[in-house]
Each structure stands twice: as C-alpha cells, then as structure tokens.
From TrEMBL:
<dbReference type="InterPro" id="IPR021005">
    <property type="entry name" value="Znf_CGNR"/>
</dbReference>
<dbReference type="Pfam" id="PF11706">
    <property type="entry name" value="zf-CGNR"/>
</dbReference>
<dbReference type="Pfam" id="PF07336">
    <property type="entry name" value="ABATE"/>
</dbReference>
<dbReference type="InterPro" id="IPR023286">
    <property type="entry name" value="ABATE_dom_sf"/>
</dbReference>
<feature type="domain" description="Zinc finger CGNR">
    <location>
        <begin position="142"/>
        <end position="184"/>
    </location>
</feature>
<protein>
    <submittedName>
        <fullName>CGNR zinc finger domain-containing protein</fullName>
    </submittedName>
</protein>
<dbReference type="InterPro" id="IPR010852">
    <property type="entry name" value="ABATE"/>
</dbReference>
Amino acid sequence: MPTSTAGGSPLAPSPAAELVLAFVNTRALRGERERLADAASFRGWLVDAALADPGDRVTDADVAAARELRDALIGILLSHAGAPVRDDDVSRLRRFGELHPVHPVVGASGAALVPAGAGVAGAFAGVLAAAAELAFRGTWSRVKACRNPPCRLGYYDRSRNQAAMYCEARTCGAQMAARAYRARSRAAR
C-alpha cells in the first residue's frame, strides 16, 4: 500500500489513519464479529481492505501474527490517550518492522513507503507504512485507543488540543467517570 507525505487537515483522518484504525478495530467490538478469528476471516478482511488478493494464502500463524501486531498497535494507541507506554509494545512493533520491511519510493511529486513483500507480509508492512506516514505528517498522536478497558476501540482524535481519551465522551467517558466516582465513594467510606 503506497503512502505519501502530502498535506491535509490534521483534524480529518487521512487514508493512512483509516487503515491503521481499520486494522486495530478488527476485534469483536460493539456487535461486530472478530475479523482475526481464523485464516478465512483474516483473508476476508485483507481483501476488503485491499491489502491482499482473494487467492493469497493466509495461515493460522499469520492470524496469530496479526493479533500480535494489533495488540502492539493498541498498546501504542493507548499511550496516545495518556496510558503509559509499554516497552513490550515498542519492541514488538520494531520486530514487525524488521520482519516486514518497506521501501522508500521517491518521485517528483513526493515520496512514499511501499511494502517490500506481497500477500500477508505486504499487508503487515502496509499497516506499518501507514503508521510511519502518520508520524511523518505529525498526526500519529491523534490515532488513539479508548481508555475504557472493555472498549479499546481505535479512534481519530479530532479535538484541537488532542486531549480526547475515550472514543465517545457520552458512553465510554461517562462509564469511566462513574467508575471513578464509585471508587472514590468506596474509599471515603
């Protein structure tokens, strides 16, 4: 998946942000099904995301690797929402980058990072290239995961001050506030 360093509003998610969010939101969330349940469901997601062809081989090991990448990305996205950075997540992303490299392609109108491989390996590289593009643009910190533990939905923080910690203030934010209130009440007794 080619990425570019072209400009755009930081308040609107770029295609790179949408790809990263689509990948981290493959979990069974809010009535959706788990998209990394098995090789067939993962292949379906890859095809839907235009990261692989229908005939590409997807193994159970690929599914396990996809879950590991997804979990590491969610950990980083949680840190964007104020949670502490876990060294394990950084190490896993570094390892994925080494296993699934990208190549820079420079042209007259800009530059792009493109996956060095095809199939599932290329898909992993494409997700990592999208994250790198966001970092180059200065919008990587806007891609976050909800701090509400049962949710962890990935979202794009459109606020001007980048202070959002929850995917939705009315639901997840309110749930976290209620939990904190109950905890303070219990501690006061």
